[in-house]
């Protein structure tokens, strides 16, 4: 009997999911695997099945539930520290999520768009002034989301580095439980002070509006507002940062697609959807544990069994995306699952789309000759984190 696949699997090519995903999808779309401690889990790789299970409330997102699957002891410890609706089931999930919904509507994001465009223009101005070569990760990939999340939370700009460091430490596969708990404590301690300041003197930001609307009425406690701030940092910073840098690399490695975007910046919206599908940078966020018996693909998933609904595999399903391993920014990829599906679908997806569309349209319009400054083989990838990306991206023009 062959050994079960052990998560996380190594990538043969840094820009593509492990080849085992495609093999399972074609031959065994509902399969068994192991995680770090030997626990058995289910792997779901077929688009149709992944989407169905993500919309099935017989699967729980609560990490403390018996059988909930984890990729490492450190990541598991970080998940247990979370006390936000991201790790809740209904009705609690919807109760808390609705308190933030108005902050991320299409209209709210459109109001932010001019300010974000100014930020992007300023960062690219700085890049052009400094001149090549430079590392795109700190210059744009980290800088823009840091500025946006600081704006949203009303936090001091000089706190960017601390917030980024502590948020990244929480989601590192190789971190020990003690290290992730320490990073979580540091981040919560920072937000504790920030929320206290805003309780005394509210401003024009998300935390202040939560305090005024829900904190002062007793609907949200001080601690709950602190944890909502931590969720916004993790969900709205690390992911967009990785997409900016990794998405830029994907376009640089596909010069025909880069040229198409330079020739027609209006393709930015389709380009972003395709990059989200193609890269799927949060490969293991959609893990659940069954709370009832569920039949899928000829298999029975029983209560207490952990499930990984592998969105990177689903987003490369040839039945839904012809030639799925080819980047095609003219493709209509809007039905991808990179933001999840069902009640836990990413709340901030419209903000992420707006930032990414503006970044790619502006970057390649203003610097159409942008290219890698090192061979692709020398690019270092961050494969030890819940969010996939690059550690550095040296570019020139």
UniProtKB/TrEMBL annotation:
CDD domains xref list: CYP105-like
Record-level Gene Ontology MF annotations: heme binding; iron ion binding; monooxygenase activity; oxidoreductase activity, acting on paired donors, with incorporation or reduction of molecular oxygen
Entry coiled-coil feature ranges: none
Pfam family, one: p450
Superkingdom classification of source: Bacteria
Record keywords: Heme, Iron, Metal-binding, Monooxygenase, Oxidoreductase
PANTHER family, alphabetized: P450, PUTATIVE (EUROFUNG)-RELATED
Family recorded in the similarity comment: Belongs to the cytochrome P450 family.
Descriptive protein name: Cytochrome P450
Source species of the chain: Acrocarpospora macrocephala
């Amino acid at each position: 009997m062959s050994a079960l696949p052990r998560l996380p699997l190594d990538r043969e090519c840094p820009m593509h999911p492990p080849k085992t995903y495609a093999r399972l999808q074609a031959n065994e779309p509902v399969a068994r695997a192991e995680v770090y401690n030997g626990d058995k889990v289910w792997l779901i790789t077929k688009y149709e099945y992944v989407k169905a299970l993500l919309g099935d409330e017989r699967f729980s997102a609560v990490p403390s539930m018996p059988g909930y699957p984890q990729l490492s002891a450190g990541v598991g410890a970080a998940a247990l520290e979370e006390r936000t609706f991201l790790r809740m089931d209904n009705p609690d999930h919807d109760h808390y999520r609705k308190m933030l919904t108005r902050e991320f509507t299409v209209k709210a994001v459109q109001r932010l768009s001019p300010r974000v465009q100014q930020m992007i223009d300023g960062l690219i101005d700085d890049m052009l002034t400094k001149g090549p070569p430079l590392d795109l990760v700190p210059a744009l990939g980290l800088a823009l989301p840091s500025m946006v999340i600081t704006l949203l939370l009303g936090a001091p700009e000089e706190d960017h580095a601390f917030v980024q460091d502590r948020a990244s430490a929480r989601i590192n596969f190789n971190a020990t439980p003690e290290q992730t708990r320490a990073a979580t404590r540091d981040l919560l301690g920072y937000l504790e002070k920030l929320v206290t300041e805003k309780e005394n003197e509210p401003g024009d930001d998300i935390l202040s509006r939560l305090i005024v609307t829900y904190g002062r009425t007793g609907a949200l406690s001080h601690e709950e507002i602190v944890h909502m701030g931590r969720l916004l940092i993790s969900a709205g910073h690390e992911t967009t940062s990785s997409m900016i840098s990794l998405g830029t690399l994907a376009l640089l490695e596909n010069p025909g697609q880069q040229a198409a975007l330079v020739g027609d910046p209006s393709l930015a919206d389709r380009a972003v959807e395709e990059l989200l599908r193609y890269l799927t940078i949060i490969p293991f966020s959609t893990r659940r544990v069954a709370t009832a018996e569920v039949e899928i693909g000829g298999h029975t998933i029983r209560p207490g069994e952990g499930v990984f609904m592998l969105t990177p595999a689903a987003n490369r399903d040839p039945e839904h995306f012809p030639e799925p391993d080819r980047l095609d920014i003219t493709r209509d990829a809007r039905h991808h699952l990179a933001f999840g599906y069902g009640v836990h679908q990413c709340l901030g997806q419209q903000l992420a789309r707006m930032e990414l569309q503006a970044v790619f349209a502006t970057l390649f319009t203003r610097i159409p000759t942008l290219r890698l400054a090192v061979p692709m083989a020398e690019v270092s990838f961050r494969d030890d984190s819940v969010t996939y990306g690059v550690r550095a991206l040296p570019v020139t023009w």
